[in-house]
Description:
Radius of gyration: 20 Å
Largest sheet: 12 strands, mixed
Oligomer: single chain
CATH class of the largest domain: Alpha Beta
Helix content: 10-25%
Number of strands: 17
Distance between the termini: 50 Å
Amino acid sequence: MxxxxxxxxxxxxxxxEASPTQLADLLGGPSLIxxxxxxxxxxxxxxxxxGNETTGLLALQALLKQYRERxxxxxxxIFIGNVEAARDGLRRLAGQPDYxxxxxxxxxxxxxxxxxxxxxxxxxxxRRPFASVDIxxxxxxxxHYACVNRIDHRFLHLASLFSRxxxxxxRPRGVQSMAFAQLCPAVTVxxxxxxxxxxxxHAREFLEACLHLSDIPDHPVAARDLDLFHTVAIxxxxxxxxxxxxxxxxxxxxxxxxxxxNFRELPVGTELARLNGVDGMPLExxxxxxxxxxxxxxxxxxxxxxxxxxxxxxxxxxxxRVIRQDCLGYLMERYPLPG
Length: 339
């Protein structure tokens, strides 16, 4: 079977105007596009790794229109990911792996998509990318924030250009930013919910700022300039349990405003859900080493799930499809800045 990847050495005609649903037909599949610029080392940008997260595409299109008659300040390499899922407005299609879990370093089994991401990585390596930006949306209520996978001053400087709120994580594995961290400063930017013009403008402005950088400093970032958090656990709902938000006829009835808890420090004893006929701990939580740690963070008393310690969630969502395909959200703690 041949590669899934399409290659373009110039801007495909119609790309700046195409809707996400038109990309599969326009491009023919996931695509790596190289555009020249004044500085040769390219900025690498990945978008639509999740087909329903469209802010990256809209931000890129606005940028391309802005430079339609002008030379880009820096070469630009663009990876447009899951165009088949984008056609249907879905994160991924049934039978597909998550496009942001199968990059080099993944613990997922071999697949055509995994081989494609390795191909993208190997093709970019000799181009010596200047920096890497992966653009995402999320479904819960979260601020705009940036993620890094290394505590490195260059990575922190790059991320802080997008937001003062930064998250450091090393799980899940197989994400794009973790793979490209081997080649250059790499960040993931989370631009809020789909369809918000503020997220599209913010992402476009960030990409333009990255294109204009001549270098990325390696001196320490001032502690007053950012808030750094560390993801300490991924929280999932076991498939055996039904769940809902504010509903009574399910196994796990989460509080209906669960996503309002994101990026807030929750005190011990905060109620998260009411349980119906569930014995023991109703959630799974895995730490960075893959260990089950739910009982360290949550407690059940009188059929009520509560926090067992001070927690700060991120990406808690009310979207059942996302919860089933990926996770309920993440748990974080503050992380000291390196000297």
